[in-house]
Write a structure and sequence with these properties.
alpha/beta, about 50% helix, 13 helices, Spore Coat Polysaccharide Biosynthesis Protein SpsA, Chain A
Length: about 300
């Protein structure tokens, strides 16, 4: 009989069979054995092969579930939260991998911070081949992480800090279902659903706890949804819309510091600035000009104080 699980790894899958294998093996390499994993196949690439690969492992702790229909990213993430059999659940992205001490680290944080709705850690950045990589935006965000160890986000100060830098690496999050309750990722978003949920939790009075110690390897590659939506700029459309919505909500609450941080959209505009510079260096003036239009629109929204809802 496998040991009683203390943490669930829900692995939403759509494509990338090779990377999925790495993700599963990183779960099996955890230093503790008290875990359960469930692969949630969203009817994407090679479903039969995925099922056969998991069955071939012969590990009773790993379950395969095919969605009755394609749910999309947000729907499959929510299904992962619902599929957990433990209070703690991590949505391990199928193209990422855990470091061997991830489960230990989350269980320790959960024990020492019983009020936290979510726990997270720093992440190593890797490329498509698993080699170390970095981006200027990630380097900047690391400067904004609270210095305490572990650090804590709560109330207006927590929301203001999050909106200044969006430094929480979403895939590293371990959710505590007993405090999360029925709250889930909001349908309709394609890129900012994690930030929206975290902000909503802080507005609801919850707290988020994190550590500077890396326990997760996050893969940046051109086939990811983040990369595609950054390239076609739909990511920035969503970020502008969400920041305007959060500015309005913070303003209604009287959280003026958080409202100002949301209206400035500083980290979104900085990210666009890095991409404009990269386009200019690569002699892509048309692409740079298009991104500049978005940058100016974000600047205008921040200076005018106008804000809307999505």
């Amino acid at each position: 009989m496998p040991p009683t699980p203390r943490i669930t790894f829900a692995i939403p899958f759509y494509r990338g069979l090779g990377w999925l294998g790495e993700a599963i093996e990183s779960v099996r390499a955890q230093r503790i054995a008290e875990w359960r994993a469930v692969v949630l196949d969203d009817r994407g690439e090679a479903s039969e092969a995925v099922h056969e690969r998991i069955a071939g492992l012969g590990d009773p702790r790993i379950e395969y579930r095919a969605n009755p229909a394609t749910l999309g990213m947000v729907g499959n993430w929510n299904r992962g939260l619902d599929a957990a059999s433990t209070d703690l659940v991590t949505l391990l992205h199928s193209d990422d991998r855990l470091l061997p001490h991830y489960a230990e680290q989350m269980l320790s944080l959960a024990e020492s911070h019983p009020r936290a709705v979510a726990l997270c850690c720093a992440a190593e950045l890797i490329d498509a081949e698993g080699r170390p990589t970095w981006t200027p935006a990630d380097s900047y965000k690391r400067l904004l992480v609270p210095r305490a160890e572990p650090w804590r986000l709560a109330g207006e100060a927590g929301l203001r800090a999050l909106l200044r830098g969006d430094f929480v690496m979403c895939p590293t999050l371990c959710w505590r279902r007993s405090r999360l309750g029925a709250r889930r990722f909001e349908p309709g978003w394609r890129q900012v659903q994690d930030l929206e949920l975290l902000a909503r939790l802080l507005l609801d009075g919850d707290e988020i706890v994190g550590t500077h110690r890396a326990a997760y390897a996050y893969r940046r590659h051109p086939e990811s949804a983040t990369a595609r939506q950054s390239e076609d700029l739909s990511r920035f459309e969503e970020e502008f819309a969400l920041y305007d919505r959060l500015a309005a909500r913070a303003g209604e609450r009287g959280w003026r510091g958080a409202e100002r941080a949301a209206r400035r959209k500083a980290v979104v505009r900085l990210h666009l600035g890095f991409r404009i510079a990269a386009d200019l260096v690569a002699l892509r003036p048309a692409a740079a000009a298009r991104k500049l239009g978005y940058w100016l629109r974000g600047s205008g929204a921040a200076s005018s104080g106008s804000g809307g809802t999505r």
